[in-house]
Amino acid sequence: MNTNQDDRPVDLPGGEESYEQLLDDYSHVGLPAEGEVISGRVLQVTPQGAIVDVGLKQEGVVPLPQVTAPDGSPMYQPGDPIDVMMDRRHPPAIEGYIALSHERASKIRAWDTLEQAHRENLRVLGRVLGRVKGGLSVDVGVAAFMPSTQVDIRQIHNLDAFTGQDIEVKIIKLNRRRDNVVVSRKAAMEEDMGARKSTLLEHINEGDLVRGVVKNLTEYGAFIDLGGIDGLLHVSDISYGRVGHPSDVLQVGQEVTVKVLKFDHDKERISLGLKQVVPDPWETIHDRYADAMRVVGRVVSIKDYGAFLELEAGVEGLIHISEMTWSRRMKHPSKVVKVGDNVECVVLEVKPSERRISLGIKQLEPDPWTTVDQRYSIGSVVEGRVRKLTDFGAFIEIEEGIDGLVHVSDLSWTKRIQHPSEILKKGQVVQAVVLQIDANDRRLSLGVKQLQPDAWETFFRGHSVDDIVRGRPSRAVAFGVFVELLPGVEGLCHNSEIPAEMRADNPPLPIGEEMTFKIIKLNEMEKRIGLALASASAEQERLRLDEYQRQAEQAGQGIGEATHPDGDAPE
User: Fold this and answer.
1) Are residue 499 and residue 511 in the same domain, yes or no?
2) CA-CA distances (angstroms) from residue 531 to 303, 413, 466, 482?
3) CATH number of the domain that 310 lies in?
4) What is the distance between the alpha carbons of residues 543 and 533, in angstroms, rounded to a whole number?
5) In contact, 528 and 492? CB cutoff 8 Å
6) pLDDT value for 10
7) Of 87, 334, 490, 505, whose CB is crowded by the most CB atoms within 10 A?
8) In a domain, 561, yes or no
9) What is the rounded distance in angstroms from the CA atom of residue 403 to the CA atom of residue 5?
């Protein structure tokens, strides 16, 4: 006995007649041909299957598995249309009904639909069943194959993510006899992209703000997908500030609003700008920054000539190395600041037309030159470190920001100095005398030789013409012989003052041997001393005086109290 979904008996026409008898009885009605798809209407869904009205005197039945979803829920309700076909290969699921197949009908209908879609280049909707070798399996009414290269316009690395998705595809290959269908999602996407591109090219204009997605990043910029066409966002148009690489600001897949800067319709090239979407901060820079204002910025870059500070997004200022400290000894800006430091500084100059702001750190402290004359006076002795040597002198730093110059002529009273390195070394700590102060021109003159008395001045103060002196011939020249009287003090004994018999020798006087001379000329202004070789008698007199002085010192008597060797008191 047959039952319905409530397990109650169902009255079936024909009583206990067999399925074959029913076919024979209704053969004169004109049953559908084998393989013909007919449309029916669901009357009832029972545990054995769906009872379907196909327009004959006898209803048919479709096996339950063909009308239920994988989770067991019914796919059809009473009144729903359904495609079926006669199924003579299997007995009916319920005795007394015509055996119908929805599965075979759906497959035939699906093939018809696929063939039409293929002919007319139409899309069909499919569900991804899962990953298979080389691509994906897609249900489009029949099982179809979609190669991995046809899944997307871009290369896809995770095909499993598409499982269970409903997607639109186009049929790129179909063979019904071999039950072979190849589909492409990429072709459908390219069709959409072409349509969007045509629409975009018709309506886009320079100056428009458009939405796009970051498609790719390169060293020189980013490609933005505007929906069918890509535009180039150059790295210089990403931000008003410093951008080392587009990846510092953008990420692939990120949605952005950009401005169309240039559009070449013929070549289909679009130049885009991101920073142009917001106002240029340099246009109103004077509203926020003024000379002498104190500001704080972050160090973003260090060069040999200075450091760049970001004051705000898109606005950078430069602290030149000369504006970092009052001292001149700093070799590199990295000695004062590091990248990432927040630094307080003073605005020195704002130039919007050049997009430049000059900054300074040393201005946070008083200029030491403004009070230099209060801390030093002419003639005072100072101490400092030799900072730099030049051909004309040496720079000595006596305090932070204050350098003084020792000219080469002020290094020694007596020596002829060709270069300061003959006496001084870089980094050496030395003392010097302040010779001159010029705060306006930031100049301080120093002298090293002034620490010692002038040997020439000492000699001239202690000697006069006709004095007998001792000296050592140091060098011979064509016109005479120079004689060292004191370290650094020389006199000239002209050839005319040397006996003729001695002038025949070369040199006329023994170099380095101490001799007695008579001063015949003194010129303090020109530092010139004229000498004459002393006579033997004068030499003897000098020796007698030296001996007398020696004896007096041994006797503990002064020269003024001693008796002259000849019995006369000294004059």
Assistant:
1) yes
2) 64, 21, 9, 9
3) 2.40.50.140
4) 15
5) yes
6) 44
7) 87
8) no
9) 109
In whole angstroms, give the CA distance from residue 287 to residue 466. 84
Asked if 403 contacts 396 with a C-beta cutoff of 8 angstroms, the reply is yes
Q: Give the phi and the psi of residue 398 in degrees, each rounded to 5.
A: -95, -15
What's the rounded Cα separation, in Å, for the pair 53 and 100?
Answer: 11
Q: Residue 43 is encoded by which pair of tokens?
A: 């009357």
Domain boundary among 262, 277, 292: 277
How far apart CA 14 and CA 94 sit, in angstroms, is: 13
Number of domains the chain is built from: 6
Beta pairing class for 402-407 and 315-320: unpaired
Quick one: which H or E segment has residue 289? none
98-102, 126-130, 450-454: least confidently modelled range: 450-454
Report the range of poorest mean pLDDT among 13-22, 93-102, 176-185, 486-495: 13-22
Block residue for tokens 């004062």: 336
DSSP 8-class letter at 3: B
The C-alpha atoms of residue 297 and residue 305 are separated, in whole angstroms, by 18
Percent over 90 (pLDDT), the chain: 33
pLDDT digits (tens, 9 = 90+) for 206-226: 888 889 899 889 999 999 888
Specify the amino acid at residue 264.
D
Q: Cα separation of 54 and 97, whole Å? A: 11
Residue 438 in any domain: the answer is yes
Helices H / strands E in the chain, number of each: 7, 30
